[in-house]
Design brief:
435 residues, alpha/beta, four-stranded mixed sheet, 14 helices, binds guanosine-5'-diphosphate, binds 6-O-phosphoryl inosine monophosphate, binds magnesium ion
Length: 435
């Protein structure tokens, strides 16, 4: 029995989807526990590309039950479109389960996300404009509407009518924007309810029962540690608990249920949206990484900001998530760079720090301190064994392990499911993987 949590250690897009897909091959259940369709998880299987936003990345494994846990905020329209898209590609979706406690993203959340961003001007967050912040705000403010409400037309209409008066007043009077009609939303959402009702259950019972039965469960994080509402670079964060702690409240299990926490990290660093990014590159190296790594957002298509690997932020992610190991992705993207830099610490006012709390105020004052290592030219995209990597690529990983005091259990060298080096024996036997 192995219950594994996969979390992003940076600002998202670390390759969580592809690692989840790989491990879900041997998992009986894959659980999303936070976020919404702001997430964009790309999985490539035998040259077929799947872009997942709300559906757990285990869906390509027909034997895994895929759970959208209570901590996720659900836009029912995008969920239905995603399911249809998967079905059109021959993927079975009948293994999906959605928590009746999930909060719904409503059209006014999406409108409010946009008008708020527009009104903030230079202070905007750079959100995905999917209504995530406003939906979580209503959840915390106890004025949200949940999937269980959607399943009861009378309750849904009553809640919608009451909240819409307030939302329309804000949209019209504060933002001079358009109001919504109760009937329009009601009719659309009743259609969604009809389609989604067969998936809706109490997923907390389901997940706990599966754990009791000794099944292998994967918990798939969305976003990353530095986007966590508490631990990230606030206010330039998302609105959920993206760190390992979010698993417990977001899926309804107790903290003793987890055996292994794996932090997913790129072999460099990227960020989409606004906010401080100490190792950001605005030179030809940044362009090289963006182009070679195809660093454009899965959800919004925005160009991702690129920079060098930052040990200070990963050390923080290691503490906050209590990481057992790292999965280092996209090593192949660094191929061809003559020199590669690694940020080992920050210079703040002339003093060097290995560990800092990565909040905006501190990071703004931080100047990265780098070491420079030699790159490699050889194509590594077919290598399956760590010892088969070029000397300098191996050295790069070993330096990161030493600087961070954490092993790299997996190293990916290309986007396809099979382009991965597995080094950890437990994971190897979990996957019955042979080098
Ligand atoms: P997620 O949000 O953490 O699941 O990551 P995304 O899917 O948004 O972004 C990761 C991108 O990198 C996707 O397009 C993946 O197909 C791609 N990718 C993942 N691992 C590798 C790798 O090892 N090499 C290359 N070249 N691409 C990768
Ligand atoms: P995955 O799961 C990268 C960023 C947005 C913005 C901030 C707040 O694919 O790693 P939001 O719409 O959540 O209110 O936006 O968070 N963001 C992500 N960045 N990957 C993601 O998801 C993200 N989800 C949100 O760009 O800066
Ligand atoms: Mg992504």
């Amino acid at each position: 029995m192995s219950n594994i949590v996969l979390v992003g250690t940076q600002w998202g897009d670390e390759g969580k989807g592809r690692i989840t897909d790989l491990l879900s091959n041997k998992a009986e259940m894959v659980v999303r526990f936070q976020g919404g369709d702001n997430a964009g998880h790309t999985v490539i299987l035998d040259k077929n590309e799947f872009k997942l936003h709300l559906v757990p990345s285990g869906i390509l494994n027909p034997n895994a039950v895929c759970v959208i846990g209570n901590g996720v905020v659900v836009n029912p329209m995008t969920l239905i479109n995603e399911l249809r898209d998967l079905e059109s590609k021959g993927v079975r979706t009948d293994n999906l389960r959605i928590s009746s406690n999930c909060h719904l993203i409503m059209p006014y959340h999406i409108a409010l996300d946009s008008v708020t961003e527009n009104s903030l001007g230079s202070l905007k967050i750079g959100t995905t404009r999917k209504g995530i912040g406003p939906a979580y705000a209503d959840k915390a403010g106890r004025s949200g509407i949940r999937i269980c409400d959607l399943m009861d037309p009378e309750v849904f209409k009553q809640k919608l009518s009451s909240i819409l008066k307030i939302k329309n007043a804000i949209l019209e009077k504060v933002y001079s924007s358009d109001a919504f009609e109760v009937e329009d939303i009601f009719n659309n959402y009743m259609q969604y309810a009809e389609i989604l009702k067969k998936y809706v259950v109490d997923t907390a019972f389901l997940v706990n029962k599966a754990i009791d039965e000794g099944k292998n469960i994967l918990f798939e994080g969305a976003q990353g540690t530095l986007l966590d509402i508490d631990h990230g670079t606030y206010p330039y964060v998302t609105s959920s608990s993206t760190t390992a702690g979010g698993v417990f409240s977001g899926s309804g299990i107790g903290p003793k249920r987890i055996n292994n926490v794996i932090g997913i990290t790129k072999s460099y660093c990227t960020r989409v949206g606004e906010g401080v990014f100490p190792t950001e590159l605005s030179d030809k190296n940044g362009d090289y990484i963006r182009k070679k790594g195809n660093e454009y957002g899965t959800t919004t298509g925005r160009a991702r900001r690129c920079g060098w690997f930052d040990c200070v932020t990963i050390r923080y992610a290691k503490i906050i998530n209590n990481l057992d190991s790292l999965a280092i992705t996209k090593l192949d993207v660094l191929t061809g760079l003559e020199k590669i830099k690694i940020c080992t610490g920050y210079d703040i006012g002339g003093k060097i720090y290995d560990n800092v709390t990565p909040n905006c105020i501190t990071l703004q004052k931080s100047k990265p301190v780098y070491i420079e290592v030699d790159g490699w030219d050889e194509d590594i995209s077919d290598i399956k064994d760590f010892n088969g990597l070029p000397h300098n690529a191996r050295k790069y990983i070993e330096i990161l392990e030493e600087l961070l005091s954490i092993p790299a259990s997996m190293i990916s060298v290309g986007p396809d499911r099979h382009q991965i080096i597995i080094r950890d024996n437990d994971l190897k036997s979990f996957l019955k993987h042979t080098d």
